[in-house]
Request: fold
Amino acid sequence: MGTMTARWCLLLLFGLALAACSSSGKVDEVEPNIVPTKYKQEVIDTLTPLLSDPTNLRDGAISEPALTTVGKETRYTVCVRYNPRDPNKRYMGVVERVGYFYGGRLNQLIEATGGQCAKAVYKPFPELEKLCYGPKCA
Reply:
């Protein structure tokens, strides 16, 4: 019985050592309001699959990232404005979207409502207007 008890004690100590290694007790928290640096490319990458025809967009414009109160939180946001084409290649009219960032990365890009982008200071966004896909783009 002495050897069996020693084995159980050794196994218990080994288990406790593994548990101590796997959890340091501190949680790695992400700073939510890191300034987004690659925001334009992230907007393009997120927006492209949402468009029925991502080529020949008109009136592309984007705001600089700005800290904005969102509910009870403060987050970096950008506003994007563009005129997309429908599947029949007809322009649909100007669309505004607001992008929310967390930890310096784009978290959401949704249609702006209720004046969310009313105070946005837009700058031209030619990268958005130059989107091109297929063999003609190379």
Remarks:
- Residues 32 and 70 are 13 Å apart (CA to CA).
